[in-house]
Amino acid sequence: MVHSAVLVLNKSFLPVQITTVRRAFCLLYAGMAKAVNSQYETFDFESWRQLRLQVNEERIGLVDRMIKVPRVILLIAYDRVPKRRIRFSRHNIFARDKNTCQYCGKKFPTTDLNLDHVVPRSQGGITTWENVVCSCHRCNRMKGGKTPEQAGMYLVTPPRRPSWTPPLNVSLKDVIRKEWVPFLDFLVDVSYWNTELLEE
Hints:
This protein has 200 residues and is of the alpha+beta class.
């Protein structure tokens, strides 16, 4: 239990990392963090310790009593979001291109878009930020296995690696707990949209 996962938020309630229950209790006890419940109420260590335990709630033993295990904590003085490597994923490619076909310039729902290699793989194109763009199904069929120049098409924006930073990089190996969901609302269809694509 002491090694299980706890979501850490900065003081703006943005997720910044995942830690262990042991570390979360150390931060709470030292007054560096507060526990957050499902109603977004915050508790220092003493007030968290006094909470009445409900049936089936996760708990850990102290010398004189049982205490509820916090699954989300809020850092009191930390307001930054740490810099992270931007995942090369469908979600981030669609975000970079703003769900806009990079050939016709029209915006589409994600279900009507796919990923296109600007220089096709059949012509030596590789799977990188600089060679993959969003395209609608129609433009993708028109382009086929050609380069945009060969197909008489033009890119709206040349593809490049984005400069923004994702708020939290939660691996598929991490257990996403129900208490975390309100703070991780960007993790829709995690397995498809955030799985890292292989760069060649």
